[in-house]
Write a structure and sequence with these properties.
715 residues, Rossmann fold, 11 strands, 63% helix
Length: 715
């Protein structure tokens, strides 16, 4: 039976494998597969909305679980991290391997890609070494048909020794048959006998030397042959997992260690070192996969990927790759900027109508004025601004971003930028996390999970804030519109987009520079290599894109922002309304910060606005206006012209606008991002570093620009 709250009890195993079940009779099914096989689509299609997502406790890896019913049985589907193997060279591989080994799922479904089955069979063969409760799901059969690839599923099932089903999860084909096979395997109606990999004679001999003793130690809890090979190969992480989950200390068993050392000595006598052993293991797996694939896969057209290659020759070329990427990014930002204005205005009107009703309600209750002002003008108004400014851009940007992701373009972005990140001693996948940061830096930090190397994951986390999120877009857009685009007349929106794009390119340049600096100082190390898969281009599914981007990204990020914005609204109101000598605390703070702020091209009110805007960057401009107008609550002017007049009246020049844009681009992460960094790194130290690095960068950049302009007499 799969591990559940009912079956494990508290403290029996680590919390990692406690699956949310309603009854001991619920059937637990693990879902494994390579990335880009449509595994998430299979998961979503089977479970619908009956799912929840979190983290594996102690791991920065997503843990998604869902439910479905078939033949009056309740199934709990656990979506394991997408991985290419189970050799545990990354956190994702370790999580997937440990759940299959120690989570005791009733069945394991392995999702493969019909368009590249041979490569996917490597993972299938590895999992079949661990468990016989396997169902192979050959997904994307519609893509294979389009590319004229034929797969004989019956022969594949015979060769593998496990049930096989073909599916097109995007349109629901084959899912009922998949459910039926899961039910049969998990209930014992089918008892698969998986094909086992045959290794070199010398390796098989070494395995037998250790296998019998291991079987006496662990019984039927694990596949003794597979475990023997892993121990001879020196898989220390597996030893730790066995000690944690089975409470068996194999590392402390002297006789076992003696047998392992003896097996290694015999291998070395035959010219096989430990480094060579893994190569031979992998070679045996690959050869077996090639043999099976050659017997079941046939191509009617050997040029089935020709169109994809032609497109890639343009999108990933040295000449056109980067310009096309920047142009697409510009189009997305233009659509976001233009499209968000009207819904943002409507949303603001609706929320402030509610504010009026709250005022009526508080008066009806007869509450003191200060209570009304603190809760309505402080807490609620701050929340209203955050929601009205954040929600429309995110609701536009994230679906557009997900559209590019679903179509297969984002891996091409990583390919184009990989060379630059390698030069910066960072990981190529950081390009993807950086792209996600354009929508929200908190989401970008979460996306850093895809980077296997802990060192490079930290670099990506620390530098993610250098790309502007949608919370900083309003500031960048407003200032570029007032001081730059206003001179462009009818092309003002295009000028604003170009200004924002220039800021983004600067942010990318700073990201690369700081990444290299970190890799040479506090995070020294060599950049790791990684295999970047360029998946086939696919027709995006608009419905699922909207659901995924709105619920998984937009509302998730908005929820975190609202959580920190509510108390911030109260603090801002208190600072603006509590006076010391007829001057508010807000004004006192601004006056105290003014000398330092002037050095970096700002003023005290701008700096305090950034500080009080820590919960959400969207409220920086309203706080600044409130400070200049000496009002007691957050507000916004009716037009950019009024805003420009207010700023100029308070001593603004073009240099002030440029320095504020630069500081907006380079300053501390918002509270939502900091909380996310703390959760992802499990470290206050690295959270503080993530706060300090962009802050120091922003101060240095603004100081150089401000003092340089003054020395040259430009202001």
């Amino acid at each position: 039976m799969g591990l559940t709250k009912q079956s494990t009890g508290a403290g029996t195993l680590k919390e990692m494998f406690r699956v949310e079940t309603e009854s001991p009779s619920d059937i637990v099914v693990s879902l494994a597969g390579n990335p880009n096989t449509g595994k998430s689509t299979v998961f979503n299609s089977l479970t619908g909305l009956n799912q929840h997502t979190g983290n594996w406790p102690g791991k920065t890896v997503t843990n998604a679980q869902g439910k479905f019913t078939h033949k009056n049985n309740k199934f709990i589907l656990v979506d394991l991290p997408g991985t290419y193997s189970l050799l545990a060279s990354s956190v994702e591989e370790e999580v997937a391997r440990d759940f299959i080994c120690f989570g005791n799922p009733h069945a394991t479904v392995i999702v493969t890609d019909a368009t590249c089955l041979e490569r996917n069979l490597n993972l299938v063969l590895q999992i079949m070494e661990i468990t016989n409760k396997v169902v192979v799901c050959v997904n994307l059969m519609d893509e294979a048909k389009r590319k004229r690839i034929k797969i004989d599923l019956e022969i594949l099932s015979e060769l593998l020794g496990v049930p096989v089903v073909g599916t097109s999860a995007r349109c629901g084909d084959g899912l009922e048959e998949l459910k039926d096979l899961i039910w049969k395997v998990s209930t014992g109606a089918i008892n698969p006998t998986p094909r086992q990999i045959v290794y070199d004679d010398v390796i098989e001999k070494a395995i037998k030397k250790v296998e019998a003793y291991i079987k006496d130690l662990i019984g039927e809890q694990m596949n003794s042959k597979w475990l023997a090979l892993r121990l001879i190969d020196g898989d220390v992480k597996l030893l730790d997992s066995i000690k944690d989950y089975l409470t068996i200390d194999l590392a402390g068993d002297d006789k076992l260690q003696e047998l392992i050392n003896c097996a290694r000595s015999e291998l070395e006598a035959d010219g096989i070192s430990l480094d060579d052993l893994r190569d031979r293991i992998v070679s045996s797996i690959v050869r077996t996969a090639e043999d099976i694939s050659s017997k079941v896969v046939s191509f009617s057209d050997r040029l089935h990927n020709e169109l994809d290659r032609k497109i890639d020759n343009i999108l990933t070329s040295k000449i056109f790759g980067i310009p096309i990427m920047i142009a697409l990014l510009g189009v997305i930002f233009w659509i976001t900027i233009e499209g968000a204005n009207i819904p943002s205005s409507l949303l603001a009107k609706g929320l402030f109508w509610i504010e009026g009703q709250l005022t009526v309600f508080f008066r009806w209750l007869g509450t003191p004025t200060w209570v009304h002002d603190a809760l309505v003008l402080g807490v609620y108004r701050t929340l209203a601004w955050v929601v009205s400014v954040m929600l429309p851009p995110m609701a536009i940007f994230f679906p557009l971003f997900t559209f590019l992701e679903d179509s297969g373009y984002l891996p091409r972005v990583a390919f184009n930028l990989d060379h630059f990140f390698k030069k910066a001693c960072a990981h190529g996948k950081q390009a993807l996390t950086m792209c996600m940061g354009f929508g929200c830096n908190a989401a970008g930090v979460i996306a850093c999970r895809i980077i296997d190397s802990p060192r490079e994951r930290l670099i990506a986390t620390i530098t993610n804030n250098f790309v502007p999120c949608n919370g900083r877009f309003p500031t960048l857009i407003a200032l570029s519109s007032i001081f730059i685009a206003s001179a462009a007349g009818a092309f003002s929106s295009i000028a604003a987009v170009l200004s924002v794009l220039l800021a983004i390119i600067l942010g990318i340049a700073i990201t690369l520079s700081i990444s290299k600096l970190l890799s040479k100082t506090i995070l020294k190390g060599l950049p790791s290599s990684f295999t970047l898969e360029l998946p086939p281009y696919r027709k995006p599914q608009v419905g699922k894109i909207l659901v995924r981007s709105i619920f998984d990204r937009t509302l998730f990020v908005l929820g975190r922002a609202v959580t920190v914005a509510a108390p911030a609204g109260l603090v801002i109101w208190l600072m603006a309304n509590i006076t010391i000598g007829d001057v508010s605390i807000l004004a006192h703070c601004a006056q105290f910060l003014d000398p330092f702020a002037r050095l970096i091209g700002l003023d005290g009110y701008i700096l305090i606005a950034f500080i009080l805007g820590l919960p959400a960057n969207e409220i920086v401009i309203p706080i600044l206006i409130m400070g200049y107008m000496a009002k007691g609550s957050i507000l916004e002017l009716d037009s950019l012209a009024e805003m420009r007049d207010l700023f100029v009246a308070n001593g603004w020049t073009w240099l002030t606008a440029v320095c504020m844009m630069l500081f907006s681009l380079n300053h501390w992460p918002c509270a939502t991002t900091l909380l996310t960094i703390k959760k992802e790194t499990q470290s206050i130290k690295w959270t503080f570093v993530s706060f300090l690095v962009p802050t120091i960068t922003g101060i240095v950049v603004c100081f150089i620009v401000a003092q340089g302009a003054r020395l040259l007499g430009l202001v």
